[in-house]
Amino acid sequence: MAERRNGRGVGRHRRPPEAQATYREVFAVGEFRALWLAQALSFIGDQLAQVALAVLVYQRTENALLTAATYALTYLPPIVGGPLLSGLADVFPRRTVMIVCDVLRAVLVALMAVLALPLGALCVLVFLTVLLGTPFTAARAAIMPDVLEGDRFVAGTAINNITHQATQMLGFLAGGAIVAVVGAREALALDALTFGASAVILVAGMRRRPAPKDRDAQSLGLWRGMRDGARLVFGDPTLRSLVSFAWLCAFYTIPEGLAAPYADTFGGSAMTVGLLMGAMPTGMAVGAFLYSRFVRPASRLRSMGWMAMLACLPLVGAGLHPPLWGVVLLWALSGVGSAYQLAANAEFVALVPPSGRGQAFGLAQSGILAGQGLGILIGGAVAEVLGPQTVVALAGVLGLSAAAMLTLVWNQVRGAAIPEERVAGGSAPAA
C-alpha cells in the first residue's frame, strides 16, 4: 500500500505489481459477503422507497411539482451533511456507525409507513433518512480496504457497482409492481425491514474493530475534521486529480436526467423512457465487469484518462440526432467508459491514510452528488431552450474537454511522482 503523510507526499512508494483477483476470491471473504448483502438490501429498499414515496405524495397532493420536489430532496442531505457527518466514520468504530445508521433509518421509515404525517413532516423524515446514509456510506467505504486488500478491493468495488446498476435497472420496475400490489405504505414498511435486516447481517457478519482515531485524544470536532479532510484531499496533487476524475461524472450523467424529454422526441412512451434510463447503468455494469476482469492492475491507471474520455465522447453523437437504437448504444458505451472510476477509487484508497478515509470518502461522494444534481438541473433548464439532444451533445463536448485536461494533468502528476518514488524506494514499476 502506498503511504502518504498528510498530503505532502513524504515517504510514498508505489505498490508492486499485484495478481489479478477473481470474483470467487472476493466472495470467499466472509466479511465482504456481509457487506455486499447488506448493501444489496439497502439498494433494493431505496428503489422501493422512491417509488412508494412518489406514489404516496402524489396520491395526497395530486401535484406533480410537489412530488418531484420530494424526490429531489433526496439529493440535498448528502451535499449538505456529507462533508460534516462523514467524519463520524473516523471517530467511532465503523461497524458501529453502520449498524446505528441502519437501525435509525429503519425506525424513521417505519414512522413514514405507520403514521399519516403531513407533507412537511414527511419531508423532514425523508431528509433525516437520507442524511443518515452519509455516515453509513462513508463507514462502509472506509472499512472496505480493511476487508479486501490489493486487487481484491478493485474486484469487490466492481461487484458493488454491478450490484448497484442491476438494482437500478430492475428496481423501478419491481418497485412499481410491488407498490401496485401491496400499496405505498406497505412498501415503505418493507423498506424499513430491509434496513433492519442489513443491521442484523452487519452484527453477525462483521468483526469488531477499534475506532480509527482515539476519542480521548481528539474530540468529536466534526467541523475541524471536515477542514482537515479538505486540506488532505485538495492539498495533494495526486488526490486532487483523482477526486477531479471522480467528479467528472457530473457531465456524463446529465442524459439520465433528460431521459423523459429525450424520449419525447421518439414518441414519449414509458417504455422508451425506461430503455433510455437503463442504457447507461447497463453499460456501467458491463464496463465494471470487463475492466476488473480483463484489464491487469498495472494497466488500469495508465488507461484511466482514455476511459474517462470514452465516458464523454459518445454523448457528442447526440448532436447528429441518431435513431433510438443509436442513442441507446451511445449511452451504453458512455457507461462502459465510466469504469475508469474503479482505478481512481482504488488509487484514492491506497493514498489516503486509514484514519482519514471516512472524511475523504465523504467529501468525494458529496462532490459527486452535488455535481450530478447541479448538472441535471442546469441541463434541464438549457434543454427547455435548446432541446435535449443539443444539451446531451454539449455535455459530451464539455466532459470530453475536461477529461482531456485532467488526463494531461494526471500524466504530469504521475511523471513527477515516479522519479521521487524510485529515489525513495529503489526501482519501482509504474502502476
TrEMBL record:
Pfam families: MFS_1. It comes from Actinomadura algeriensis. Its main location: membrane. The chain crosses the membrane at residues 64-85, 106-132, 187-205, 232-254, 266-291, 303-322, 363-383, 389-410. Gene3D superfamilies: MFS general substrate transporter like domains. InterPro entries: MFS, MFS_dom, MFS_trans_sf. Keywords: Cell membrane, Membrane, Transmembrane, Transmembrane helix. This is MFS family permease. It is found in: Cell membrane. It is a multi-pass membrane protein. Residues 184-431 form the Major facilitator superfamily (MFS) profile domain. CDD domains: MFS_MefA_like.
